[in-house]
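Practice set, problem 2.
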Amino acid sequence: MIVSPLDYRYGREEVKTIFSETSNLQYMLEVEAALAKAEAEVGIVTKETAEEIHKHANLKYVKIEEVKRIEGEIGHNVMAMVKVLTSVSGESGKFVHLGATSNDITDTANALQFKKFYSYLIDDLIRLCKVLYEISKNNKYTVMIGRTHGQHALPITFGLKTSVYLSEVMRHLARVEESRSRVVVGKFMGAVGTGAALGKQTMKIQSILMRNLGIAEEEGPTQIVDRDRYVEYASVIANIATSLEKFATEVRNLQRPELGEVQEPFNEARQVGSSTMAQKVNPVTSENIVSLARIVRGFLIPMHESAVLWHERDLTNSASERFIIPYISILIDDILGKMITVFKGLKVNSEAMLKNVLNDDLILGEAYLMALVNNGYGRQEAHEIVRQASMDVRKKGGELRDKIEKKTGKKIKKLSPLDYTGNAVEITEKILKECEGVLKRHRT
């Protein structure tokens, strides 16, 4: 019986595979095999013993059904795996898991999952950067209304809007890359972090083990890898999800018919907008991004709480992490892919943007305020003149410039909103140049 929507609705198969039950078992077996080889390297077990364990530490010999059967009997998943690996490894089996505690295996296996997923996450962010780069470059002169509090404010460009998003995504990429060295971390220091079982050899074994697995080692473990690392991982993921929700919300807002400035991709030949309102073109992908982003962020509190354990460790983090780590990883990849699709196929209605700008004379309020200041008025005095004039326009109609001239008795040069986008183009170009450097770095 399938219950989770991850199993039938959300997520890429290749990413879900990283966190699947079978992959988790294979990662643990990979750690056991690497541990045996590290112990052989320092002379604790023979090379032949390590090779025999390595030979059998895979799903061909360690059947997941048998592991689950034994776990049902003994109530311990890692020990169940150890028992099966021991039984299939012949005489060498008596050295399986030597000097290890369960979390030496599971936390190091987690690190291997993180290591694999980070490559997908970084690739997703780079692809999103590329799409936003193109939109920003193509629309750096596309004038539109800037809005604050949901109200018309001042003219901006659509390229500026999306380049701000691009800048945000580049920061996320930097956070992900920086966090990787702190998150992809394993351990082999036994039950309370002292490595007492194998004595002085333990630290050397841990270094060899982690080096061979291509991951970092925990500097100060307890029974587990310190969970501030997992909190950081979840926090970085939640931060990305928040940005994606923001981007998708903007698409939804700008797609409203009364604005009509953008539209997410819609297959006009086949896609159905509503089961009853056949005319509907709904921003369903953007809405889906928003919905799933909230699920991702919802795991942030339990992740923080899972870092608060008694003494050197208890089990209160175990069950929650089985949900948190796979879910946030699979879902962030899913919504990043959807966000890329939305932006890649986004219809930018520059004509509607221009029409909305030209139809609102009041967005020149600040421009006329500065014109008055340049004509000798104090800033506060000019502000009040423009405020009163704009209220007159709202009540009685007419043009803002005419109202200002009537109040001041002075002629004012007619201004255009198309000429009042400030440094929008320059800011956009600066961000585009920064992105070019980021993309060049990731091509090498």
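Problem 2, part (b): a different protein.
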Amino acid sequence: MLKKSKPTSPGTRQLIKVKAALSKKEPEKKLAFSHFRRQGRSQSSGRITVRHKGGGHKRLYRLIDFKRDKFNIPAKVVSVEYDPNRNCFINLLNYKDGDKRYILAPEGIKIGEEVISGENVTLKIGNRLKIKNIPVGTSIHDVEMLPGHGGILVRSAGSAAQVMAVEGGYAQIKMPSGEIRMLKEDCYASVGQISNPEYSAQIISKAGRSRWLGIRPTVRGSAMNPVDHPHGGGEGRAPIGLRRGPKTPWGKQARGVKTRRDKKWSSRFILQRRNK
């Protein structure tokens, strides 16, 4: 649910945040640890390779179980927690053998419910099973790309993929982007949609809040000089000129340009490219 703040100050006048029923508890000590954030810099050269990252509040990294390889052991959902390292919420699971693990929280799951992972378990939100045993039309998330490698697809807030068909050892999956691709039917996936679907509707409202999140300022190219950006220069507000389209600061085409390698090994598994 979205919450609009009272305009008691300039910083709260436009502020809209997600209001969720989260557990008021500290992160699990054995599953949370400090880690070095590179803040956009290359590990080898130390130079900035991803711009506009740096600063921000201190964070503890929560160790997420993307494999969920404790098969056929029921686990109870103990809490729904905020994770500063991702835009969705996370669940703390307490397994019957005493083990505790974090997973990505699906939308609609409640504290006290039981979830389980297995090859052919009950079709229920939060359960994890092989794609070949999931009915066509079911929404899934945290999808494996290779069997046993753990979920790497469909992990952001509010996203969900859909099972389109299963035949010939492969499953056809429709991604949130609209892309339809084939995955091996033995890959595991979790049932349901990722939590926090209203994340993208938030309004940060002030520059300071972006800095708390580790986002540094972004300067428009049109506000720069010609020496600094292809869009720069001109008297007053000026268009991009005679160029075919928008450019990056290094002169390459931006927005709508395909960046995927022509001979990438996994391209043969894509049946339909994503929506533009």
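Answer key, part (b): The chain is about 0% helix and 25% strand. The chain has two domains: 20-200, 225-265.
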